Amino acid sequence: MRAPWLPLLDWWFGSSESPDEVAKEKNALWFGKKKSQDADALNRFGGLVELALKGELSEWTETPQGWLALVLLLDQLPRMIFRDTPKSYSGDKRAQELVSHGLKLERDLALTPLQRTFIYLVLEHTESLTAQDEAIRHFAALLPLLPATNRDYFKQTLDYAKKHRAVIERFRRFPHRNQVLGRTSTVEEVEFLKGPGSRF
Asked: Which of 3, 86, 115, 162 is within CB 3.0–4.6 Å of 111 for a Cys-Cys bond?
């Protein structure tokens, strides 16, 4: 019987073997903002996302691949399906708990380096300086695992982790989330948001 999470992983990561090729092929899906992609995510996996947000599908965590897929349902997919609404962050707490527990069990080591980046992104999405530091350590640890010719995407992930950390160090939160979450921005945050690279 085919594992229920495989369609999600196939859609998210594709079939290319080279990490850089996968990243090139899927970058627009992962980090782009297109209504058509968001609608596709909803049509394909909206039901699973709702189950995950209700605290179900915990049995998926019994395998590293299922754990990864459940984390995607909680962390990445809500950001697409519920974009620009408070619900886009509604899976973050559970995702963070799953990642924290899984990392203690070293479950991430059973995943490919590329798959591991989406586990560590959960740490990067937190408004915690400790978690940001942990994200940077994990992203940095991936680089030696790859040949020098296949590190471009991983260097970018490390660079973005450092940029996220800098924002948390400065503001103790992500100012670009303030409007969606109903938080009042400070004068400094308003000025920051006018600049390039302030909205991830």
From this structure: 115
pLDDT digits (tens, 9 = 90+) for 57-99: 999 999 999 999 999 999 999 999 999 999 999 999 999 999 9
pTM metric for this prediction: 0.95
Sign of the dihedral through C-alpha 135, 137, 138, 140: positive
Residue 22: which of 134, 146, 164 has the closest Cα? Answer: 146
Count of other CB atoms within 10 angstroms of residue 85: 12
d(CA 58, CA 70): 8
Q: Which is nearest to 129 in space by CA: 174, 165, 176? A: 165
Phi and psi at residue 65, in whole multiples of 5°? -65, -40
| Residue 97 in tokens | 């708990």
What is d(CA 65, CA 38) in angstroms, rounded to the nearest whole number?
A: 23
- Spell out the alpha helix ranges (H) of 64-109: 64-75, 77-81, 92-104
pLDDT at 1 over 90: no
- Nearest-angstrom CA–CA distance, 131 and 32: 24
Distance of alpha carbon 29 from the chain centroid: 12
Task: Give the C-alpha separation, 147 to 164, whole Å.
Answer: 26
pLDDT bucket at 138, cuts 50 / 70 / 90? very high
Q: Report the alpha-carbon distance of residue 80 to residue 56 in Å, rounded.
A: 20
